Amino acid sequence: MRNLLAFLDKYNHWFLFVLLEVVSAVLLFRYNSYQGSVWFSSANVVAGKVYELNAYAESFFALTKVNQELTKRNLILEQQLVVLQGLHVKTSADSSRMYMEQQQLLSRFKLYPAKVVSNSLDKRDNFITIDKGAADGIRKDMGVACGSGVVGVVYMVSQHYSVVIPVLNSHSNISCMIRGRGYFGYLHWTGGSPELAYVDDIPRHARFALGMNVVTSGYSSIFPPGIMVGKILHVFNSPNGLSYRLQVKLATDFGNLRDVCVIDNTGMEERLGVMNAVQDSLKER
Fold it and tell me: What string of DSSP letters covers 133-186?
């Protein structure tokens, strides 16, 4: 205590000087409009720069994570493409034909990038709003997907916005199949965890294993085949015992959904229309 008092006594004139400077600054900027406006403008500039640097840092680290995920997915897709090319070349011995078939397949689909502007997870019937609408080419009943898997189906469209029924909605009903097995069923969400859903109507004679991927079947005009849905976690019997019910861990992280693509599947709509017309004509005979 003695040392503290000695220190204060030795430098008391400095403390008094600082105190008077602070009081003078407060009186100057508070009671003089010109000086007050200069101080206010300067403070806003400094605060704006601080917020700008903070936002830049946050976006930088977010982009780093996004780039890592994109790089990982690109590597996986490249490996899958190499395997498929090798298998096709072995069976057809014609790599140029395979390239042409891939180009024809990709030309059927047009993707409209969009951003999620609102999303809910805690309701039985959740909805997603995206920032693209009729003015951007979006139509009702178009499929919506993201980089990791299926998102949902466009339900309502305005000029510049659209409402999507996601997988996390009791009215969602998406045709899907077990990859590599061909057995198909329908994806439903019964509430609860946003990470889990169920595939119903898998036939009893189906052969598959836990951990296998479930993808879109392509048996509707909404989604092309092969879009990731999730992985099989558990297998249950259906209530009537005539089929299986699969519990699936969804590939899409709906809690962190930001960027999506709306799929224009016009080519498949035409193909299914022709098939339905043929079936109808056969029934009439």
Answer: -GGGT--TT-EEE-SSSEEEEEEEE-SS-EEEEESSBTT--EEEEETTT--EEE
